[in-house]
Amino acid sequence: MKKVRCAVLGATGVVGQNFLRLLVAHPNFELVAICASDVRVGLKLASAKEQVDGGIPIEFADLVFDPIDVDVLAAKQVQVAFSALPADVAKEVEKEAARRGIKVFSNAGAYRMEKDVPILIPEVNHAHLALVREQDTPGFIVTNANCTATGLAMALLPIIPFGIRKLVIASYQAISGAGYPGLSALDILGNVIPYISNEEVKLRQECTKICGALRGGAIAAADWEVHAHCIRVGTLIGHLISVHVELQSEISLQEVQDAIMHYQTPQPIAGLPTSPDVPIYYLEQVDRPQPRYDVMLGTPPRTRGMAIAIGRLEVARNVIRFVTLSNNLIRGAAGGSVLNAELAHRQGML
Ligand SMILES: NC(=O)c1ccc[n+]([C@@H]2O[C@H](COP(=O)([O-])OP(=O)(O)OC[C@H]3O[C@@H](n4cnc5c(N)ncnc54)[C@H](OP(=O)(O)O)[C@@H]3O)[C@@H](O)[C@H]2O)c1
Questions:
Q1: Cα separations in angstroms, 97 against 5, 68, 179
Q2: For ligand 1, is residue 67 a contact (CB within 6 Å)?
Q3: Active site residue 128
Q4: Average pLDDT of the segment spanning 122-135
Q5: Cβ-contact 260, 280 below 8 angstroms
Q6: CATH of 4-146+334-346 given 3.40.50.11810, 3.40.50.2000, 3.40.50.150, 3.40.50.720
């Protein structure tokens, strides 16, 4: 079958380079264009500084940066744009691309809270993809969540059927979450920063939208009470979250363990190239999950970094407590977008 022609916008950044890695030999997508800031135009991808293990894929090294101009993308017959742009740039570019018929799968926060734009995490809310039909453009914008909200929503997935009332969260977020070059070494080395601009608001708003219900062309957000502290720590990749969940009624440890351990990917997503065989790992060792050891979970190899981990599980009456870890650059960013596009492809929407 003919592959869908795609572009990566923001191809030099930490998320952009994960897109490149995931698009190598992808069965559905063919990378035909790359963009970054104006200074890159005309240079080869190989000239960019490597941001991920394994570096710039050799298959794409000779691609030349295009200007970030929708006319240029249209001339190259780009059908799908994977966006890893800063939010202010994304605000301009993504809407224009959708107006020109391009299907945009974005990591940026610019359009996440628009009422006709889904924040898609296929395992959690694959039905929300239909919301793009409310957009009045020939193309569309699908976003994925803030990287912390993604890990949280995935971890809540087996628990949602028990009836959630309240969440109290503390995140321990890696420095790669701030992009490259990100924080100054003087700020973060030997330090912990108990504030990340806008993160707590985003986490609250996005997780209730993601876990809400699509009714009559709009999403009714989940009516959970959510409290969050988002904290930057000196780890490289992987956002760890301590989660306290209050349910509407009592539950046993065994029931929660069973729900997590027997969780299975919903049928519409199962078998997609970037969908891991086991999306949620339950780790019984008392000192796991840890970013150093557990941030690249996922089989088969194409899905490494797409599975999340849950550990430190405790249940008392109607309260569940656990620690969860997800890869902010793969599950929380590039891999999430590629999975969203694969779902749209499977549903004939590209
Ligand atoms: N890092 C994460 O964990 C994470 C997770 C989820 C979502 N996100 C979101 O994903 C997006 C990318 O994040 P990142 O961490 O990859 O950031 P990053 O490392 O700073 O990369 C930003 C990319 O955008 C390009 N860019 C910057 N200004 C531009 C402009 N004016 N015109 C065109 N391109 C421009 C950069 O190109 P140059 O190199 O040429 O400047 C680079 O390719 C952001 O919206 C972020 O909020 C990030």
A1: 14, 10, 24
A2: no
A3: no
A4: 98
A5: yes
A6: 3.40.50.720
Question: By alpha-carbon position, which residue is closest to atom 12 of ligand 1?
Answer: 84
Q: What's residue 1's pLDDT?
A: 80
Annotation says 207 is catalytic: no
| Residue 8 tokens, joined | 């990566």
Residue 12 pLDDT > 90, yes or no? yes
Q: What is the mean pLDDT of the chain?
A: 97
| Confidence band, pLDDT 50/70/90 cuts, at residue 54 | confident
Most ligand 1 atoms within 8 A of CB, residue of 21, 37, 39, 120 to mutate = 37
Ligand 1 nearest atom to the CA of residue 90, by list position: 45
Give the torsion through C-alpha atoms of 260, 229, 296, 56, to 10 deg: 150
Measured by CA distance, the residue closest to atom 2 of ligand 1 is 177
Catalytic, out of 26, 126, 128, 239 = 239
How far apart CA 198 and CA 164 sit, in angstroms, is 24
Tell me the domain boundaries of the chain: 4-146+334-346, 147-327
Class of domain 147-327: alpha beta
